[in-house]
Amino acid sequence: MSEQWPPLAEVRKELRVEWYRCPVAPARLRELMRRSDAKGWFQAGGHLALFGCTAALVILCWAHQLWLLFALALFAHGTIGTFFRGLATHELNHKTVFRTKWLNKLFLYVYALPSWDNPFHYAVSHTYHHRYTLHPEGDREAVLPANVSLRFLLMLQLFTFNVWRSRRNLGHGGLVPTVLDTVEAAFGVVGGEWWTAMYADQPREKRKAIWWARAILAFHGTILVVAVATGLWVLPIVLSLFPFIANWWAHFVGLPMHAGLRDNVTDFRKCVRSITLDPFSEFIYWHMNWHTEHHMYAGVPCYNLSKLYREIADDMPRPRTLAEAWREMRAVWKRQKTDPGYQFDTPLPPTANPGIAPPAARKAQPDGLSQSIGELAPAGL
Fold it and tell me: Which pTM does this prediction carry?
């Protein structure tokens, strides 16, 4: 292991990030952190219902050989389904969506299995991401600088079928690297420094990730066997390949989370970016466009993040539009080609506090409340 990337067991002992969080009255914060089964069903059940509708439309067009409509329906199906992996499963991994705990787990597994997502691996990785956001020695889930290229071959994959693209660099992985990673994990092969570092002192979580990888292969293998036996080749397209089809929108709305911003800072307003979206996109994105607010108070359910923003708006940067975020990221990316050390310093409004919470604010927000990341962290962490 290189000196730049110390073992994570050492990082947990030595690295303490004293994050600034915009002050919120404890009573109001508890209210915002309240989980709701009704809102959870609307979010999780609603996204699944949309997925079911597009799947049914794809199958119907396939059955009637309406190939142009089939292509359009498949594009819509992939666009909706792409938000399963790492987005729906992200919030369900925090276990803040439903008040009833077993519903969070049930929906997490329902979303993760068909989308080739490993929630046990992600829970370990994402715990480090929240604790040490953009501090490279502890957060290797989001490593800067990010590639915000719009090159033709990348766009071709994102608007059609994502075959080769790596999951690294804040992106959605293609079919080949995802399947290879899953096969390796199923056989207990821990590939890459990040995997090795994460599981060095977490053997129990590693075993869970291995067994889930085997479950993924069994699930998709069964679908393939059924397709061969019945001739229903549309089934693996709809249920196994959808995470790699039409990744375009998840890419465009997801990359602004951290790209181009500052690392090694203790202020989420400088290392995380929030954007505004239309209501439908915000819904299928699980409200993660309010990403600064999510990092600041990760125990707040996704459907309350816009309320949290309104509560702390005077202390926050103005959320960018999607177009503004991409112009900002592209400008930073181009400048970094000649000035590799450059990072964008997000300006704060005149009403904002500096990046260190005053003592009164610290006392007003007990650590257990303000620092909650839901029930994301495994027992070993």
Answer: 0.93
